[in-house]
Amino acid sequence: MSLELMAFFGAILVTITACLMLIIDDWRLNVSLLAIQYVGVFALILQVWPLAMSISHMVAGWIAGAVLGMAILSLPQPVGEIKDIEQSEPSTGRLARRLRLGSDRAPNVIFLLISIFLVALAVFSQTPRVSGWIPGLSLTQTWGGLILIGIALLHLGFYSQALRVTIGLLSLFSGFLILYSAINITTLAAALSATIALGLALSGAYLTLAPSMEPG
Fold first, then answer.
1. Does residue 22 contact residue 112 with C-beta atoms inside 8 Å?
2. What is this structure's pTM?
3. How far apart are the C-alpha atoms of 136 and 113, rounded to whole Å?
């Protein structure tokens, strides 16, 4: 498979995962989608970065997702009560709650879809221009980077939970890295990208666990 075809599928992958992460409320699916998103980011930056550097960022993203997942699993939860509630709840109710259709604390799914459409429209109109500004940046890379940045900003604007904010920041940084990869092709850049991703994940894990660590 050629690098151009891989980048095309990578752009589709990051677009789908970014949209689903904004809509879906289940943290397990969000962490899984984050890991899949890093595969798409890998395919996009592989166009300009060497294989080892591209893999290092993908593996760092997987570790970041694992850190966030372990932080959520470490939270003290009344597991028995949660299982009883889920078993007594109709399947349609569980699906609505997972998609946040019945949540009062999150934006309505229709509003989120409209926001995604507007961001995609803006990205589509600006992709050729931004691609011309940065030498060596293809249209697929530009689309993938801009759509990640745009939907990540929606994440940061709509949610205040530590896990949501961390996922938004990781997606935002991945989008920036896709655009930046055409400018800087050095081992230091790959090392810094992995360090930043892990640092964001550790910070998000701490902020997720901090309320449960308060005395009393």
1. yes
2. 0.82
3. 32
